[in-house]
Amino acid sequence: MRYLPLTPSDREQMLAKVGVASIEDLFLDVPEIARLDGPIHDLPFAQGELAVERHMQRLSNGSVAAGSVPFFCGAGAYRHAVPASVDHLIQRSEFLTTYTPYQPEMAQGTVQTLFEFQSQVAGLLACDVANASMYDGSTACAEAVVMAARVTKRTKVVFSGGLHPHYRRAARTLAKHSGLEIAGLPIAINDEAAVLAAVDQNTACVVVQCPNVFGTLTDFTELAKAVQAKGALLIAVFTEAVAFGLITPPGEMGADIVAGEGQSIGNSLNFGGPYVGLFATKDKYVRQMPGRLAGETVDADGTRGFVLTLSTREQHIRRDKATSNICTNSGLCALAFTIHMTLLGDKGLKHLAQLNHEAACETADAVSSIQGVELLSDSFFNEFAVRLPGDAAKAVEAMAAHNVLGGVPYSRLRQEPGFENVLLIAATETTTAEDIARLADTLKKVI
Amino acid sequence: MAMNNVGRPTASVANDAAAPTTFSGARGLLQPTSLIFETGSIDRTGVDLPPVKGVQSRLGGLARQTTTGNPGLSEPEAVRHYVRLSQRNYAIDLGMFPLGSCTMKHNARLNEKMARLPGFADVHPLQPVSTVQGALGVMDQLSHWLITLTGMKAVALSPKAGAHGELCGMLAIRAALDAQGQAHRRRVLVPESAHGTNPATAVQCGFIVDEIKAAPDGRVDLSDLKTKLGDDVAGIMLTNPNTCGLFERDIREIADLIHASGGYFYCDGANFNAIAGRVRPGDLGVDAMHINLHKTFSTPHGGGGPGSGPTVLSDALAPFAPVPYVVTRADGTLDLVEHEADSDGEPFGRMVAFHGQIGMYTRALTYMLSHGADGIKQASEDAVLNANYVQACLKEHMSPAFDGVCMHEALFDDSWLEGTGVTTLDFAKAMIDEGYHPMTMYFPLVVHGAMLIEPTESESKASLDAFIASMTGLAKAAKSGDTARFTGAPYHAPVKRLDETRAARKPVLKWAPPVEATKIAAE
To answer: Fewer CB atoms inside 10 Å of the end CB: C or N, chain B?
Structure first.
């Protein structure tokens, strides 16, 4: 077995040193009834690299790669061009095969990149402070909700009608057992700010999204003030981080907590994971924040260094009184994010965002010029919603048969009468004029 | 002087203290580093993009007017920045990383290569299922391996990490109790030796935590457990092998007691690496157990994630598994059940957007296919043998916390350091100078000054012997009064001991321009 260095004679010598006759003697505490007499049945035995690679390659061939066809799926995961150096750097042994930086003197590489990551995220979202990342956008949203309940000591949560349905479900799963009451507003494509009426004296937070799941952009500045005047917090969610190269960031609108998905910078689609949750808030709430935080300090010689800090919030210290049970972040995905962001810089990000918006505008023009197709989003960044004359899921299936991945039917996220014909279409800098023409032609054929 | 086998010296004779300070700030191969905010600039970029066209924007008046403040670097500058930073990290690829409870084993590069195949890495989670059969195949095959290795009924793949898997298992228990009209069962029994995530998870699920004492042999105190049972008990959260590195011999009896009282048995599977392929948790009476793919199945830890925590469930809990999950249709194709309404069971909900950590599933499946049922069993045996060998060789110099053989990790307390003026923390920092990542320290909490060593199966005997020699040397030094070696450590790391208290008292959590520079600019 290529991964196991011990030889049979090593094992014999070591057993002798331990003072037992056989390996079985080390497993005597296992109840007899649960001891197996050999390798588990129904599973294959060890294989060499070649055989394993052949098996995995065959599986891979069973999928249609996004890069091999005209591709317009978004709805929370976006296909962008990631520079080759990003994937090379995250595969450096010292980043890939190390642990959470619990011994900071031998992990300055990791802790400093997390500190830089936090700084970049805070700048991108225009917030006071960001953490070292969460599992993904949906779990970041869920943690934001329970954090708001901790801060306000209130128990009602209001979800906007444009919040990504998966985020709503994930937040509900976490929140319902914390004794929180959920008020989900009816689905609304362009009414993201129409949540104020649902806020009462027991409301902990209002969760809104921009761009929302239909792509619509909304200014929350007035809403934030009104929500805060009622003693609740405004949580702003997003699923496309590139947007903030071009649109007003949630921190500037006065959001109290910002939670969203960072996948679209530095990370590939990966069929939905692993991704990287971004989480930011105001300074005054930092001690209520979940997740890891890197901070600056000095060493015994006074030299600058970085450590994980404020860990008294966390489960390994606080146990049942912790702010969250989370004990990991999404380190390597956060590293990919920070490297890509460093390569882009403010200038590159703004340029990239502009290209995305232009591709989406051109796609929207091409699609909405088809008879029977109605553009639903008043404003958008790189994704928009259209209403087709018939069932959107069927249209997407039919387009796939023509080798076009033409978007995500809203019904895939949530089954709701009246929304069966809604299709979400995203375009990025990877979208070509030819792709757009293929989409328009194919869509025309199948509806 | 130490010599290698061709007679060349293997260590420098130069005295570190006599080394001159360099003009560059470098120390030979160790290059100086700075923050990107100090070297980059706002108008520089390392990405070439096609020109914008000037299309009329449709931003609804929400165009950003401010800078992100994030500097850019050209590609050569960025590559150098991150490579230099990487060289300030220790890693498994550099040496032994005996961090107990974390299972730092070798990360095979084949797993990385397979995870990047386009049929897994370049597919969107919401493409039509007819176009993602390969990715669903990975989920289906991984599920088969996990169910078979654990002897359980079903697996929920979507939890994003171990603690998230705990949440999944406990929410399934909560849903099952609610469905049985047993919602009043709110008390969860947790041994005092448990990982901190266990009580934190129980509370997140709306349970109340009740601690069970440890017996003097490091295992659950059965008599204390019996007094804590009652008709308000929802279940127990037990790690096995436990956090002291010991197999809970009475585990079947514990399971029977919990079941007889109407509760469920959650097993923390963090230490599955000791028994995978040799013991099936289903045979021990477990109802739910998360599996850290990043421990037992070697998906890389990546400096703190991403993890992956699939959770296996017994017959009793399987109907409550969260969405989504993969099913096989009559025609043999794979499909996803994504909506609770489409499920045959009673899912407790959805834990995440999309379907979980596919990038980790491909790596874990590659590991499983490479090892096979025989290799997984051998890996567990080698992991246990390596830990026992370390314990046997170090027990004369340090004090094992408990008598007898251990499983995959060897636990010592700090009684052997008494009177030396050296603490567990100091000892750990001196290990950094020896070129080792320290063991887990001060955990589990039931052992004073705990030192938890997990070598894993990836270490050769020669590697273990070198580690043992180094630990023995340190132990002798501590006892002989060479205190400064410890209290001043690390001496040879890129930085000296870092002031964690200062970091927490006045948190600096992001870069800000130096105060003087800001003032001058304002004037």
So the answer is: C
A312 compared with A259, residue with greater pLDDT: A259
Q: Quick check: A299 and B174 in contact, CB under 8 A?
A: no
Among B81, B199, B393, the residue with its CB nearest the CB of A319 is: B199
Nearest C-alpha in A relative to B406 = A26
Domains identified in chain A, total number: 3
Nearest to A346 among B57, B70, B121 (CB): B70
Q: Are residues A274 and A377 in the same domain?
A: no
Flag if A342 and B251 touch (Cβ within 8 Å): no
- Are B361 and B399 part of one and the same domain? no
pLDDT one-digit tens code per residue, A225-284:
999 999 999 999 999 999 999 999 999 999 999 999 999 999 999 999 999 999 999 999
Burial, B6: exposed, middle or buried (Cβ in 10 Å; 0-12, 13-18, 19+)?
exposed
Q: Which residues of A touch B372 (CB under 8 A)?
A: 39, 43-47
In this structure, are A216 and A307 located in the same domain?
A: yes
| pLDDT tops 90 at residue B403 | yes
- Say if residue B306 is preceded by a cis peptide, omega within 30 of 0: yes
Residue in chain B lying closest to A276 (CA): B306
Q: Are residues A293 and A379 in the same domain?
A: no
| pLDDT (average), residues B137-160 | 98
For A402, the domain range is 69-81+348-446
What is the domain-level CATH number for residue B186? 3.40.640.10
| Chain A: closest CA distance from residue B7 (Å) | 26
Question: If you average pLDDT over residues B12-32, what whole number do you get?
Answer: 78
Partner residue opposite B304 with nearest CB, options A28, A99, A301: A99
Same domain, yes or no: B357 and B389 = no
| Domain shared by B267 and B230, yes or no | yes
* A314 in the same domain as A431: no
Q: Tell if the CB–CB gap between A295 and B131 is shorter than 8 Å.
A: no
Domain that holds residue B282: 111-367
| pTM reported for the whole predicted model | 0.96
Facing A348 at nearest CB: one of B47, B97, B365 = B47
From the list B56, B134, B204, which residue is nearest A59 (CB)?
Answer: B134
Chain B residue closest in CA terms to A392: B128
All residues of chain B having their beta carbon less than 8 Å from the beta carbon of residue A71 are 124
pLDDT digits (tens, 9 = 90+) for A173-230: 998 888 899 999 999 999 888 899 999 999 999 999 999 999 999 999 999 999 999 9
What is the distance in angstroms between the Cα of B313 and the nearest Cα belonging to chain A? 18
Confidence (pLDDT) at B3: 62
| 3-class SS letters over chain A | CCCCCCCHHHHHHHHHHHCCCCHHHHHCCCCHHHCCCCCCCCCCECCCHHHHHHHHHHHHCCECCHHHCCECCCCCCCCCCCCHHHHHHHCCHHHHCCCCCCCHHHEHHHHHHHHHHHHHHHHHHCCCEECCCECCHHHHHHHHHHHHHHHHCCCEEEECCCCCHHHHHHHHHHHHCCCCEEEECCCCCCCCCCCHHHCCCCEEEEEEECCCCCCCCCCCHHHHHHHHHCCCEEEEEECCHHHHHCECCHHHHCCCEEEEECCCCCCCCHHHCCCCEEEEECHHHHHHCCCCCEEEEEECCCCEEEEECCHHHCHHHHHHHCCCCCCCCCHHHHHHHHHHHHHHHHHHHHHHHHHHHHHHHHHHHHHHCCCCCEECCCCCCCEEEEECCCCHHHHHHHHHHCCCECCEEHHHCCCCCCCCCEEEEECCCCCCHHHHHHHHHHHHHHC
ipTM for the assembly: 0.97
Query: Is A40 in Cβ contact with B377 (below 8 Å)?
Result: yes
